[in-house]
Specification:
Blueprint: E1 5-10, E2 22-28, H1 33-41, E3 48-52, H2 60-65, E4 68-71, E5 75-79, E6 89-93, E7 100-105, E8 111-117, H3 124-133, H4 137-146
Antiparallel strand pairs: 1-2, 1-8, 2-3, 3-4, 4-5, 6-7, 7-8
């Protein structure tokens, strides 16, 4: 399998008033160490992140190309959305790792799914293309079905 980890995050009503949208994990593979370490340090023992604009601290390349970013106190990943016809699909990488992330948003942006591909940082666009071509559909279904 190419995809190794899965996190489904949703905007919970108790954080609906936040200025920056907060997404909390509602199911996951609970297997991605960096996210699980963030969860362990949080009050609710749950991985969460904010979906926001591009910080000034990002590299010039990221600021020029990324649409948004996910963060948890510090940057986790830029979110690149290369196709306006598929604005609910994107890709990025986990900062400080060699891992890629595929993003799948619900049409109303109330749900965000993260699919991690460990060691695929240099193949983000290829993974994105696989996703839109349906070549990762079985792996995505498996990760969703086995999430807790």
């Amino acid at each position: 399998m190419i995809l190794t980890d899965y996190y489904k995050l949703e905007r919970l009503p108790k954080y609906a008033g936040n200025r920056v949208p907060r997404f909390d994990t509602t199911s996951s593979s609970k297997s991605y160490r960096a996210f699980e370490e963030m969860a362990a340090r949080s009050r609710d023992k749950c991985f969460f992140c904010y979906y926001n604009g591009i910080p000034d601290t990002f590299s010039d390349r990221a600021r020029e190309n990324a649409e948004r970013a996910i963060s948890h106190g510090k940057n986790i990943s830029s979110v690149f959305i290369p196709d306006l016809q598929r604005s609910h699909l994107g890709f990025g990488d986990v900062k400080g790792s060699n891992d890629a992330i595929l993003f799948l948003f619900s049409k109303d942006y109330s749900t965000m799914e993260l699919f991690i591909a460990r060691g695929y940082k240099s193949h983000q666009r290829g993974l994105y293309n696989y996703m839109i071509e349906g070549k990762l559909a079985n792996e995505m279904k498996y990760l969703r079905d086995t999430a807790r």
